[in-house]
Amino acid sequence: MPSGLIESYPHAVDRYDEMLAAPGQPRPHWQAFAERLSGFPEEALLHRADFVRGAIEADGVTYNVYADPKGTKRPWELDMLPLIVGAAEWQTLGAAVAQRGRLLNAILADLYGPRHLLTEGLLPPALVFGQHGYKWPCLGVQPPAGIWLHSYAVDLARAPDGKWWAIADRTQGPSGAGYALQNRIIVSRAFPDAFRELHVQPLASFFRAIQDSLARLAPTEGEAPLAVLLTPGPYNETYFEHAFLARYLGFPLVEGQDLTVRDDTVYLKTLRGLRRVHAILRRLDDDFCDPLELRADSALGIPGLMGAIRAGRVLMANQLGSGVLESAALLGFLPPICERLLGEALLMPSVATWWCGEEPALEYVLEHLDELVIKPAFPSMRMEAVFGHELKGDSRRRMIERIVAQPHAYVGQEWVRLSQAPVWNRKLMPRSVGMRVFAAATPDGYAVMPGALGRVAPRAGMEVISMQRGGLSKDTWVRADAPVVRTSLLKRRLGVIDLVCGGADIPSRVGENLFWMGRYAERCEASARLLRAALVRVSSSDPDTELRLSGLLAAARRVGVLPPLAEESGSTPPALEEELLAALTDVDQPGSLAGKLRALGFSAGHVKERLSSDNWHALNHLEQLLARPIATVDQALSALDQVMLSCISLAGFAMDDMTRDEGWRFLILGRRVERLYGLASLLSVPLEPDVRERERMFEWLLEAANSIVTYRARYRRVPELLPLVHLLVFDTTNPHSVAFQVDALQRYMGRTARELGHPYPSLMIDPLARRLADFDLTRFEAEDCELALGTLRTLLAEAEDVAGNVSEEVHRRFFIHTVRPMHLRSVA
Amino acid sequence: MNMLPKTPVRYHIRHDTRYRYDQPVGESRQLLRLTPRELPQQTLRQHRLDIDPEPARRQRFTDGLGNLVETLHFERDHDALLIRAESWVELLPRELPALADSPPWETVRDALEYRAGRTLDAAQLDACGYLFESRHVRVKREFADYAAADFPPQAPLLVGVHRLMRRIFDEFTFDPEATDISTPVTEVFEKRRGVCQDFAHFMLSCLRSLGLPARYVSGYLLTRPPPGKPRLIGADATHAWVSVYCPEHGWVDFDPTNALLPDLEHITIGWGHDFADVSPLRGVILGGGEHEPEIAVTVVPEDEFETLYGAAELPGLRLA
C-alpha cells in the first residue's frame, strides 16, 4: 500500500488540513513524507505502529490521570505520524512566540511592580486581584536578572484560513517539553529515513539553552551553579516528564523536603551534607512552594523559600506568582498592552475572547452563546469548557444564570474550527489537532523550541484537546531549509546520566528510596523463591500435603510470606493451594508478593531519574505480571518464574550497570540487610530444637536460599546438616550465605561511613563477624550436635538483630532529616 | 468637628505566646506580625521582642501590604518557645467622618468598576486590591442579599456600613466555642455565631459581595475589667475589625464585635485581605508532637501601668 492511502484520507472542506492542500494532494512540505508513507507496504506501517507502542511501554512513558479507577498511571498516547511544519512558516511562528514570552514577562514585571496596566485602565483589576493566581507576598519582589517568566508555553490552533491563533498561555510551570522530546526520540526511530531526508530541526539545542541560561542568570556569586528540578512527587500527572527532564538536563530531581533554607539561601540536603542551590526549575504550583508564607497546609513546599526569593538568593523558574497570566480572560487585552509595554504590535493573534466582566462583552456573549465556547476566567475554577451550541433547555438557563451572577468569572471564546491532521489507525484518519510551543528565557531573549507537542483530539469530530481527557499526542517536525547537524540525543542522554551519577549531589531522600528499593527487590525475590518451593510441592491429590510441608509452611509464616495461623477460628482455614495463591496475588494481604512488588515499585518510582531504562523495563515487567489473572498453580508458577527472572535482572543491573556512587551503596546495603535478615529467619525454622524430620526440610531450604545448584555440584547427594550449614551460614564464597552478607555489610558500611564523614559503627557488625569466623564446625561431627545447633541458633538470632540495627543506624545517620515538617496552626 | 487640642493616649501592650512541645523540636520557623504600624493617628513609641530560646536567625521585612514582619529561625532542639512582644503605642483621636456625608454607596462601587481606558489613582488601585474573594472571605449572592437591607438605593456609604455593623452586632452571638480558625464564613453565617475574626470575615464578605472594598484589621482592644475588679495581666486578647474604603475620607474602621467606630481604644497592628494575611504568629516546625499555645495579651493605659506591673507577684507569663 498501500496505494490509495493518501487518496482515501478525507479532505475537509470547512477546516484547514495540515497535510492536504486539495483532495489527494499533499502540501509541499508534506510531499516527501506522504510519498514515503504511500510507498510502505501495510505490514511495514503496522510494524512501525507496534514499535511506537512498544517503545512507550518499554520506556514507561506515562501520564497520571487523577481519579482514574484503573490506577493513576496510564501509558502516554502517541500517534506514530508526525505533524510537519514548513521552515518559513515556523520562522514567523517562532518570532511571534518569542515576542509573546517577552510580553508576558513584561506584564508580570508590571503587575508585581508599578501596576501601570491597572492604573491606566489597560487591564481590569478583577483579572489580577480577583484570582488566586496573584500572589500578594510577591508584590514588590524583584527576581534575578529581571526575569519572571523563564519557561513558557502557548497552545496554538490553526483557523480554517490557515492562520495560527494562541488559545491559551502556560506561565506557571508549563508541562509538555519533556513529552515532546520523548515523542521525538520514538518517532524519529520509527521513520529514520524520512526524518533524515526532511531535515527536521533538532530539539537538543533548546534544552541546552535552558541549562546554559539558568546557569548564567542564577545568582551564583562565583560558585559553580547548581540547578534542581522541583517536583510535587510521583503522584503528579506529569511526574514521568519531571524525571525524564531532570535526567536529560542533568539537574537533580528534588521534592520540597530535599531542600532547606538557611540564611535566605536554599540548600539541597545530600548524603554528604548541604549544597547551595542557585536555580529551581519548578513544577510545583506557587501556592505550595512555601507553607510559611503561602498555603500553610502544603506538605510539599520549602519553609522559608519566599525569604530566599525576596533576598534574590535563588532563581525561580518561574517566579512565584507567574500563574496569574494563565487566565483566558487576558487574551482580549493583550494587543493594547503589547503596544504599551513593548511599543510593538502583537504578532500572534489570540482567539477572539470576551471577558464577561465588561458589560458590553457580557451582552455580546449572552447574545451569541451558540457561536461561543464558555470558559472559566481563572484556571483555579476547574471547570471544563462548554460549547454554547450544545447547551439546551435547563442547562442553558443555568449557565446563563451562573454567568450573570458572576460575570467576571467567565469568558466567551470564539469557537475555532481546529485544523485536522491524519492519525494512523490502520489507515489515515482525520483528527483535530493543535500544538503546544515552548520558549525559554535566555540572556539574549526568548529561545523557542523548534518543534512542539502535537496535541490531538481523542475522537473524530471532537473539538476539545485535553490530555486529562485522553488526548493523543504527536511529534512535530519543523523542517529546515538545509541539512541539519545532529548530535545523537540518546548518546547525549547517556552522557548526562553519567554526570549526574558521578556527582555528589545525591539527595538524602534518594539514598533512602534506593535503600528501600534494594530491600524490597531482595524481599520480592526471596518470597518468590519460597512460594515457588511450596507450590511445586503442593499436590491436590495428596491428602498429606499439609503435613509433609509443615516445616516449609512454618518458615513461610516465620518470614511473613504467609499470614500467621489464625487462632481457633470457627471457619475452616482456606485450602492450602488457595492460601498460597492469595499470598502471591492479594495486594491487601500483609506480606503478599503482590504487596511487596507494589512497595518495590513505589520506592523505585521515587528514584526514577536515577535508574537506567533497563531497570525500568524490568520494573515495568514486574508491575504487569500480576495484572493478569492467576487462578491455577501452573499460572502461579509461571508468574513466579517471571518475577524471579526480573528480580535477578534487577540484581544484575545493580551489580553491573550502575555507577558505584554513594546512592548505589545504599541500594546494595538495602539488599544485604534484607538478605541477612531473611536468611537468618528462614534458617532458624529447621534448626529449632525439637523439630521433626529436619532432614526433609533441607531440599526446599536450599531452593529457597538459592543454593541448591551449588550444593548439588559440590556434594552430589541428598542434603545433610553439616554441608548445608556450612554452605548457607559460614561459606563466605556463597553470595547466599549469612557470612557473605555480614562481610559485605562490614565493607559497605565502612566505606559509606568513611565517605560521608561518620564513624563506622564497629560494635554493631564486627562482633557477629568474629563469632562467625571463630565457629568450630567440627562440633557438628561430635556426638551431641544439639549443643552446636544451640550456638548456631543464637548466632542466627544475633544476625537478625544486626540486620535490624544496621537498618535503623542507616536511617538515623543518613536519612533522618527527611521527616516531614509538621505545622503549627496560625494563632491569634 | 472637634476643635479641642488633641491629647494623645498611651498604651502598653504585652503579647505573650508560649508553646510547650511533647517532643523536642529540632527546627522551627516563625513569622511574626506583632509590631503595630505607624499611622496618622498611631505612633509606635517603643517596641521589643523577647524570645526564648534565642533563635539562630532573626530578620525583618515589610510585606506587600506594608505590614512589619519578623522572621525567626530556630535550629537547636527545644521543647518550649516563648515569644513576648511589648509595645508602647500613642493614639490620637481620629477624625471620624459624619456618616451621612459620605457618597452614595453605588457611586463608590461604580467608580471602581472597570471600563476600558478608565484610569485609577493610587488610592483607588489600593482599594481595588480589597474588592475580591480571599482565603476567608467569600463573594456570594447570599451575602449581598443579607446586606441589601442596609444599603437602600443612594444610601450614603458609611451609613450603610454602620447599619450593617449594627445588625451583625445584634443578630450574631459572640461564642468562642462555635468556631475556630478554619470555620468557613458561610458556616458563621448559618450559625450566626463566632468571635471577632468571624464577624470581621462575615462583614467583609457582605461588603465585597456588594462590590465595596473592605479590609481586615488586626490589632488590640482596651478592655475594661468587670466593675469593682482590678485589671488583670493576660486578661485581654488580640482583636479584629474591618476597614472600608470611602473616597473622600480614606479608610474608615468599623468594629462589628462591639458595634462601634474604633477610636482611642483600638490599637492597629496591621491589615490584609483577611486573617491569613496578618495572623500574629505563623510557623512551621520539624517534630514536636502535640502543641497548644498559651496566649496572654495585656493592654494597659499609661496611668495604670505602675499599678498593674508594680505588684510584687506578677500574674500571667514571665520569661524564665
Summarize the helices and strands and which ones pair or pack.
The complex is a heterodimer of chains A (828) and B (320).
Chain A: E1 20-22, E2 25-26, H1 28-39, H2 42-59, E3 83-85, H3 87-111, H4 116-119, E4 151-158, E5 164-170, H5 177-190, H6 192-197, H7 204-217, E6 227-230, H8 239-249, E7 253-254, E8 259-262, E9 265-270, E10 273-276, E11 279-282, H9 305-310, E12 315-317, H10 334-342, E13 353-355, H11 359-367, E14 372-376, E15 386-387, H12 393-405, E16 410-414, E17 420-424, E18 428-442, E19 445-448, E20 453-456, E21 472-478, H13 489-502, H14 508-537, H15 545-548, H16 550-558, H17 576-585, H18 593-605, H19 613-625, H20 633-656, H21 662-684, H22 698-704, H23 708-715, H24 721-730, H25 738-755, H26 762-774, H27 785-815, E22 822-823
Parallel strand pairs in A: 3-21, 6-7, 6-11, 11-12
Antiparallel strand pairs in A: 1-2, 4-5, 4-18, 8-9, 9-10, 13-16, 14-15, 14-16, 17-18, 18-19, 18-20, 20-21
Chain B: E1 9-32, E2 42-52, E3 57-62, E4 68-74, E5 78-91, H1 105-112, H2 122-128, H3 141-148, H4 157-171, E6 173-174, H5 185-191, E7 193-194, H6 196-209, E8 214-221, E9 238-246, E10 250-254, E11 266-272, H7 275-278, E12 281-287, E13 294-301, H8 302-310
